[in-house]
Amino acid sequence: MNYALGESSSDERGLKMRSGLFGLVLALVATLFFMPTASAQTGQQTAAAKAAAAKTQPFDPHDLSGVWWRRGKSGSTLSRNDVPPMTPWAQAKYSANKPGIGRADRVVPLGNDPMMACDPVGFPRISFYDAYPSEIIQVPSRVLVFFDYFYAHRTIWTDGRELPKDPDPTWYGVSVGKWEGDTLVVETVGFNDRTWIDDDGHPHSEDMRVEERYRRVDHDTIELNMTIIDPKAYTKPWVGETKTWKLDPKMELREDVCVPSDEAKYKEEMRVPAATPAGK
Is 42 exposed, middle or buried (0-12, 13-18, 19+ CB in 10 A)? Predict the structure, then answer.
């Protein structure tokens, strides 16, 4: 009798152990199944919390200082879908430009992009890259914008001067800014025509005029609206999409210099072999 009772108790304990083990396996499977969803929800909640905190954190709308990352949908151009019609002069140049990077339908390996020869990227093209940050430094008479990409900079004069009437053509132009309420309005003229507007190879003339409007909408966000006016190249002003810059207080700019000798070596060892058909 005692033996039978003992055997029954052993079976019950085994059943409980198996049930417990089965429950543990089910719990583990459920945890693994729901973990990605929970992580995504947590990430969304964290992003939403950061955005909400940025809107309530105090900031000076006239202070644009900091390191910023550009964000936007249009890639390395002013806008994808709203390019104004080009004049015959500009269309001929556009057709002759062969980008080495950018849109797949435009890229030609070993193309003639001036940037590939380490020529200055130029403005406004340099401001479109979201893979590289920019730093803004303000002093009483000017706003300095430093670009991590190509280790370049531009000066926006805020000392009340007028735009020059007949400026010497330069890679980045001459920029003058003034505050209109909480918006920094910048006008830039005096470009040479040796740069492209963007990676797609859109050209411009020496008469190009660029208008920018910077507005700091919260602690972590600057919104930038840009318009290109160049009657020699485009039949109407090219109004771009709103660009968003996000603050990164922990980021420091690095040295990113385009060295002609390094570029030539890269072309010889990487670009030319990649663009050469097999067997040739």
Answer: exposed
Tell whether 237 is covered by a domain: yes
Over residues 193-224, the pLDDT tens digits come to 999 999 999 999 999 999 999 999 999 999 99
Position 280 in a domain = no
Cα–Cα distance for residue pair 203/123, rounded to 1 Å: 12
Q: What is the pLDDT of residues 69-95, one digit of tens each?
A: 998 776 789 998 889 999 999 999 999
Q: Are residues 157 and 44 in the same domain?
A: no
Least confidently predicted of 64-68, 116-120, 172-176, 188-192: 116-120
Give this prediction's pTM.
0.77
Question: Are 133 and 195 found together in one domain?
Answer: yes
**Residue 67 is encoded by which pair of tokens?**
């390191």
Full domain range(s) for residue 29: 1-56
How far CA 118 is from CA of 155, 238, 252, in Å, comes to 21, 27, 23
Q: Where are the extended beta strands (E) located within 87-229?
A: 134-139, 142-147, 152-157, 174-180, 183-189, 209-218, 221-229
Q: What angle do CA 118, 130, 96 make, to 5 degrees?
A: 45
CA 84 from chain centre, in angstroms, equals 22
| Cα 82 from Cα 235, distance rounded (Å) | 12
Q: What is the 8-class DSSP label of residue 170?
A: B
Q: Are 248 and 228 in contact (CB under 8 A)?
A: no
